[in-house]
TrEMBL record:
Coiled coil: none
Domain of life per record: Eukaryota
Transmembrane segments: none
Protein name: Ent-kaurene oxidase
Iron listed as a keyword: yes
Length: 79
């Protein structure tokens, strides 16, 4: 995907389009990136099975609702 999440485009209406576009889309996009970075740095995330069954929703591939996910806080090493 080469476009930005905040770019207004008729093919992605997550933040609206035209005069109804969300004015907070830049802030929302920034917060999502910060939260994702925090999770990647501080937690180990594993799927419960080797290959989770995926489904396609619009143009995205996402795990099915029944997919088990294990989330564990990482143990910080002392330096």
């Amino acid at each position: 995907m080469s476009r930005s999440a905040v770019t207004l485009d008729e093919s992605f209406l997550g933040f609206g389009y035209g005069k109804n576009a969300c004015p907070g889309r830049f802030f929302g996009s920034h917060i999502m990136k910060v939260v994702l970075a925090y999770l990647v740095m501080n937690y180990d995330v594993e799927f419960g099975s080797e290959e989770p069954p995926m489904k396609t929703m619009w143009e995205y591939r996402i795990p099915r609702e029944s997919t088990a996910i294990r989330i564990r806080r990482r143990v910080q090493a002392c330096n």
